[in-house]
Amino acid sequence: MSVVVSAFGKYPDGREISLYTISNKKGMQAAVTNMGAALVKVIVPDKNGIPADVVLGFGDGGDYGRNDSFFGVVIGPSANRTANASFCLDGTIYQLDANDGVNNLHSHKEKGWHKRLWEAEWNEDSVTFSLEDKDGSMGFPGNKRVSVTYSLDEDNALKLHYHGVSDKRTILNLTNHSYFNLEGHDSGSVEGHELWMAASRYTPADAGSIPTGELAPVKGTPMDFTDFKKIGREIDADFEQLRFAGGYDHNWVIDDWDGTLRVAAVLKAPSGGRKMEVYTTLPGVQFYAGNFIARQTGKGGAVYGPRAGLCLETQYFPDSANKPEFPGCIFGGDREYDAVTVYKFG
Known about the structure:
Layout: E1 2-10, E2 16-23, E3 29-33, E4 38-45, E5 51-53, E6 74-75, E7 81-82, E8 86-89, E9 92-95, E10 104-105, E11 119-122, E12 126-133, E13 144-152, E14 157-166, E15 170-171, E16 175-176, E17 194-197, E18 201-203, E19 216-217, E20 229-230, H1 240-245, E21 249-253, E22 262-268, E23 275-280, E24 284-288, E25 296-297, E26 303-304, E27 311-315, E28 330-331, E29 337-345
Antiparallel strand pairs: 1-2, 2-3, 3-4, 4-5, 6-16, 7-10, 8-9, 11-12, 12-13, 13-14, 14-29, 15-28, 17-20, 17-22, 18-19, 18-21, 21-24, 22-23, 23-29, 24-27, 25-26
């Protein structure tokens, strides 16, 4: 195992951005950057030993500052959507940036943690990014200290360990927003991939992608991935939830969640034989099929567009701060945020 550090462009204020590449003996590499704590590359061999980079992204750290699709970055302090860009906590109403119609998406599109330059420490098999955020930043209470550690093992498992503390009760709901294409980041649509999820329920949402509060069964609907199914098979079905979101962009409820590390999803490539298993300690996973990826140029001149990659974002459910019936994402004081997600490749 080894970590190689290299230059990766410059932050808008002139500070150097770095790339940290972790390699194991099986030929897998995971490259991460202190710009947005982003996952930049995951290079894994297929069944014939042919390597490919299976995450969408950019070849220069500066491009992550113009990253409207959130390729690879860590989102915080609050991933996903908050209804009416506000929440009430301990009798106080906190107003967030209304950046998705009347709602809030991913905390703040310009000031969110995905646009920050994180501090970095590393050893032979891991890189830890950390930052501090002040009370009132982006509308969220509490002086916060957070970290995410990326580590790689010899079984091709990439582990993300998140940790956060706050001196006031606040929302902490971090996720990684990587887009995966197991055929290679430059290979076109993911609609031929097969997906299975350990989720017999999901959280239906309104036209603004705010959950209604219901935990609805997937059985008998296009939302059912309890058996392996091609993503493209029903993605354009005449089903209200899919019409609202232009395809899959919903939160699935992980069965029997108890806070321990358990399998949430398995993704298979249509050819090449690559497979990715997703494990998490979190209660939900947002499956986003990349319906609205804007046409743009990524790494190596690759052209990305709609459904060129998919996200499996482990998380607390969207709008949890306003839905007391959902697992709680309020942390701070004696309750520290601590979560693990693993992407294991085979």
